[in-house]
Design brief:
Elements: E1 4-7, E2 28-33, E3 39-41, E4 44-46, E5 50-55, H1 71-116, H2 120-140, H3 151-177, H4 180-186, H5 190-201, H6 208-226, H7 233-257, H8 266-289, H9 295-302, H10 308-335, H11 338-360, H12 366-387
Helix pairs in contact: 1-10, 1-11, 2-3, 2-8, 2-10, 3-7, 3-8, 4-11, 5-7, 6-12, 8-10, 11-12
Length: 395
């Protein structure tokens, strides 16, 4: 019988053992193996080239087993896997941190601007304009490949852009009327509208666990609304309508873009939607609110406690954060599963609510805090309930 010696050294001709000739059977026949080339560690390819030798019976004057040295290969593969996992975990942690930080700053700057410059259409159009500039720079410097799409795809993207524009406009209307924490508490109802719209348009049948998780969401939002100090019907219904439009965008994106042969990636899809939204909203803002970026209107904002430089700078920062946090969200979605992204989004909402309450010193009653906590807990349960489903038509 023969045995094999596995080595990690580069392939070379093996010399026969001293004192023995190949014709007496004392030599070793060399055979290359590519076993190690296929070792993978969560996306990291480990390029080991294995070599095996067949040892004849003439070695050391008698037939013997050769020692199989595999520990080096195992340790190298395990080390590469562990290193890849650590690097990926650190990368995700940084991306989630940037996502949360951009969200916090956007909500703070946006609320400060809306307090002294209460024109949500104009502000939303300006934010889409900031995003358009960022997208054009990204394509101009080849930071991301430019999209290629057909006329039929453009029609689908146009419909998504219309819904996207309305959803962000309604969110800004709500943020201008009620507190940041209350707006995000209402937006915790997004899973409820996702299930309803998916059942109506995609034929989705939610599981018992998914339906059960919706009860604490609805109950928590209702409890928080009854005890909200800054409650305003315009702000409430604007946030509710933004839930409908945003989830309609998500549902229709599956319906309109899912059957295309060459669909755009998420980053380019969001970029094209941003540009179209800017083109659509500028004339609408002028028709609804008029031209508000004039010295007289800006001076009225100054009279409310914010000078011109602060107003322009915070508007610009809000616009940059507005586009950047959504772009980072799409990048994270490409790196993790939808369930992980949904859980991260739930944590993000908690972080935004807490940070806004602390920054603006919003008055929050114990019952209001309880309602918000129940709603957010329901969102988390909804995310976990989705992971229990194995059907292809999951939300």
């Amino acid at each position: 019988m023969q045995s094999a010696i596995v080595a990690l050294t580069p392939p070379k001709r093996l010399a026969p053992a001293p004192g023995y000739s190949a014709r007496h059977g004392g030599g070793c026949r060399e055979r290359m193996s590519s076993v190690g080339v296929g070792v993978r560690s969560r996306g990291v390819l480990c390029g080991f080239e294995l070599r095996s030798r067949r040892c004849g019976p003439g070695m050391v004057g008698r037939r013997k087993w050769c020692v199989v040295e595999r520990r080096a290969v195992t340790e190298a593969a395990g080390g590469a896997e562990e290193e890849g996992n650590v690097a990926r975990t650190l990368q995700l942690a940084v991306m989630f941190g940037i996502w949360y930080l951009l969200n916090i700053y956007f909500n703070i700057f946006n609320k400060q601007v809306l307090k002294v410059f209460p024109f949500p259409c104009t502000i939303t159009a300006f934010q889409f304009g900031c995003g358009t500039v960022i997208v054009l720079l990204m394509w101009a410097f080849n930071l991301h490949p430019k999209p290629k799409f057909s006329r039929s795809q453009f029609n689908g993207v146009l419909a998504l852009a219309v819904v996207h524009t309305i959803g962000n406009l309604l969110t800004n209307i709500s943020l201008g009327k009620v507190s940041v924490s209350f707006t995000h508490t209402i937006k915790a109802l997004e899973p409820f509208f996702t299930v309803v719209l998916s059942a109506l348009f995609l034929g989705y049948r939610p599981s018992l666990w998914v339906v059960s998780s919706l009860f604490p969401i609805v109950g928590g939002v209702a409890l928080a609304s009854l005890t909200e100090a800054s409650f305003n019907w315009i702000g409430f219904w604007s946030a509710m309508a933004s839930n409908v439009t945003n989830q309609s965008r998500n549902v229709f994106s599956k319906k309109l873009m899912g059957d295309k042969e060459e669909s755009m990636d998420n980053i380019n899809l969001f970029s094209v939607i941003t540009i179209i939204s800017f083109i659509l909203l500028v004339p609408a803002a002028i028709c609804i609110e008029g031209i508000r970026f004039t010295p007289s209107h800006l001076q009225s904002a100054v009279s409310k406690g914010m000078n011109m430089r602060e107003l322009c700078m915070r508007s610009l920062l809000a616009g940059i954060c507005f586009h950047s946090y959504q772009q980072v969200s799409y990048i994270i979605l490409q790196m993790v599963s939808p369930v992980t992204h949904a859980v991260g989004n739930c944590v993000k909402r908690v972080v935004v609510i807490i940070s806004s309450v602390l920054f603006f010193q919003t008055a929050v009653s114990p019952i209001n805090s309880l309602g918000t906590g129940i709603a957010l807990a329901g969102v988390f349960l909804y995310s976990r309930a989705k992971s229990l489903k194995s059907k292809p038509k999951s939300i």
